[in-house]
Amino acid sequence: MSTLWEERAEAWIAWARSTNDSYWSYRDSFFQLVPAAGDRTIEIGCGEGRVARDLAVRGHSVVGVDAAPTLIEAAATADPAGEYLVADAAALPFEDASFDLAVAYNSLMDIDDMDGAVREAWRVLRTGSRFSVCVTHPVNDAGHFEPDTGDGAFFVDLYRGRRRYDEVWERPGVSMRSVGWCYPLESYTRGLGDAGFLIEAIREPSAPAERVAARSKALRRLRIPNFLMLRALKPA
Amino acid sequence: MLHDACETQADNWTRWAREPNFDSYWVFHREHFLALLPPPGRLTLDVGCGEGRVTRDLRALAHRVVGVDAAPSMVAAARDVDPGGEYLVADAAELPFEDGSADLVVSFMSLMDMEDMPAAVREIGRVLTQGGRLLAAVAHPVNTAGSFAEDGRFRTDSYLERRRVTDDIERDGLVMIFHARHLILEDYSRALEAAGLVFEGFREIYNEEDPRWHRVPLFLDFRAVRQ
Hints:
The complex is a heterodimer of chains A (236) and B (227).
Chain A: H1 2-7, H2 9-16, H3 23-31, E1 41-44, H4 50-57, E2 62-66, H5 69-78, E3 83-86, E4 99-105, H6 114-124, E5 125-136, H7 138-141, E6 143-146, E7 153-156, E8 163-171, E9 174-182, H8 185-195, E10 198-203, H9 209-214, E11 227-233
Parallel strand pairs in A: 1-2, 1-4, 2-3, 4-5
Antiparallel strand pairs in A: 5-11, 6-7, 8-9, 10-11
Chain B: H1 3-8, H2 10-18, H3 24-34, E1 44-47, H4 53-60, E2 65-69, H5 72-81, E3 86-89, E4 102-108, H6 117-127, E5 128-139, H7 141-144, E6 146-148, E7 154-156, E8 163-171, E9 174-182, H8 185-195, E10 197-205, E11 219-226
Parallel strand pairs in B: 1-2, 1-4, 2-3, 4-5
Antiparallel strand pairs in B: 5-11, 6-7, 8-9, 10-11
Helix pairs in contact in B: 6-8
């Protein structure tokens, strides 16, 4: 998957920094699950760095890691004071207990070894620290809208098991091929639980009003959530 | 089950629940649910015990258990078949137990039937001792969010809209109307947060015997620990 992201890096940078990307509408919901800044925060799968930059604005001392070199280069260029490095999420180049917060925004489902990445997050976190996660919602990943509009009915095709995701997102002037995996809830929670995390909070935000106003297709997000957010704890 | 509906359905439910190899509890759900069961401690409460099948299983597994249900005829049915057991009529939102008196609360397919789920969870948090557990099974939010159309497709009008749902099922001459609420993961999470509980894990339960329910989960089991 990391080579796929590298191949699509330029398209992703353009997409992520445009108003098309859902991050800009959902980040307020996500940051409600992100604890206040501590000593050192790691962002796993930071991409071109928009989340790391937002964390820095909120006082976090952040290290952003991503497997795609072009994305890391873009992140470092956009934030010369920030710390970004190329690394495999399932083999992080840090000592045990190096961080007091880990963040993974829409990256876990794109990492081939998701369980390995979750185990690594646990290892590099100190006891009593949190792991804030956003993934694509398992319900949305399980089906399709028919017709493909804001008010189309939703049909669940297959919720169970790991499935491949490969879709092209089109907006005027921008096109982005997104490739990753779809998982049911249990895959995420089992990975977290097996690593030793407890889950403190789960959120399934509906579309914020400004996104619905800007885009009629987003009306569907008042019914079928796009994202699942959670905060996990590495217990004492 | 929503209160009154539960009382009027008590006879039907007792027949349904006790028919051998009939209800999903006996066919497949029990083995998944009991796999998450912590070992016996001082006191286990079965909240929403109904006619008592889970309480009886817990007793057989050496738990000291009290079964609690709001429907008097359910509790009467439970006592009938288990005269040595302890069963009480009580509202889940007002459990007649001291703070921190239980080390395990089991709630099998009852939280989504309650009038006020967060109040019941708050009460469960109150009676649990620190480090005590809640083991619950509920209708899976994906299941209650939609239904199978005639063509076999599973259609969901809304996952996010919370609402009452009714499911009429007739099978082999036994009739049951299931009344529940469609609640989502976030609802259970917020209720647990307010009660001082955190999730340890989830299991999504499918019905292997029905091809339609291979791809859509029927039930959601979860275990949480009192902080």
